[in-house]
Amino acid sequence: MNSTDDSEGDKAVTGSPKWDNYTLQGDVQMTNSGGNAGLNFRVTNPAAGTDSLDGYYMGVDSDGNLDLGRESYGWAQLQVMAIPGGVSTGVWYHLTVQAVGCTFTVSAQPAGSTTVTGFTYTDSGCTYTAGAVGVRSFNTAAKWRDITVAVGGTSTLPYYAPFAAVTAPSGWTTYAGTWSLSGEDYINSVSDTEGDKSIGGPTSGNFTITGDVDITSSSGDAGFLVRATDPAVGADSVDGYYLGVDAAGFIEIGKESYGWTLLATAPLNAAPANTWIHLTAHIVGCQIRLTAQPVNSSTPANDVTVTDCSFSSGQIGVRSYSTPAQWRYVSVTPN
Hints:
Blueprint: E1 11-14, E2 22-30, E3 36-44, E4 54-61, E5 65-72, E6 75-82, E7 93-100, E8 103-110, E9 117-122, E10 132-138, E11 142-151, E12 159-160, E13 173-175, E14 179-182, E15 185-188, E16 197-204, E17 207-215, E18 221-229, E19 239-246, E20 250-257, E21 260-267, E22 277-284, E23 287-294, E24 302-307, E25 314-321, E26 325-334
Antiparallel strand pairs: 1-10, 2-7, 2-11, 3-4, 3-10, 4-5, 5-6, 7-8, 8-9, 12-26, 13-16, 14-15, 15-26, 16-25, 17-22, 17-26, 18-19, 18-25, 19-20, 20-21, 22-23, 23-24
């Protein structure tokens, strides 16, 4: 959180100046009216001052826009797009930027909404081809959460799971369980051993999936399915990978192929029951990395990585076992 409202272009920067092509995403909320707030990328030579860095900025502003610009101890506006419904104080906006060469694909989505505002822009004056990442605000106080960086990107806008719909999410099919939507949450209210699952969304090989999961009992596990094919009712009745949180206090990656193979686990620095846990999974080639952290917590994130080449593509999904559970803010960004 930055609690100061000034015109200094307040920023915090992390990462390597050698990072080149990547996908940066996270949530931002402006807590005062006026100004703008968002993400910096391809950052080098940062210093205190309004546009005191070499690199790029993308974010939301109080005029109701998604902005993309270049900073080089001065400001060059590159492209602006109006966000339907405008930009409101106190609302979280999920921001994504994919930087590949001199082409940038940026998007913004109010948390819980299925409306995506985004565009792809190629900067003909591009000289910043590598750099660190950061957060930045101007003329507003702001806060950020769930910032992640993944290698690679495309010119494809992210897919957001339609969990803010009035009825069942369009394009998703359930296998066992009792599923419902409440506000921004997708809920399975049943606790059984059928490996209750709901599968939908894009078919993709390499991507980053993010979202929150909450195990609403003191047992069982819940999380994501990725590269899923051939689903059916049954505990492990699907071909694909499972990445999730166990109420016993760990995160895990496994594969299901009408049977279960545990690939890796790691401790979770939190009690997961009745707690929203933010999960981020990077799936590129044969490598899968899962990161988990309690939402709105300063507790360090936990992560686990595996290499397995059993499944190369398929859909995404959500799954629970021996617990009711709920999910929200699920998005998929191709890499």
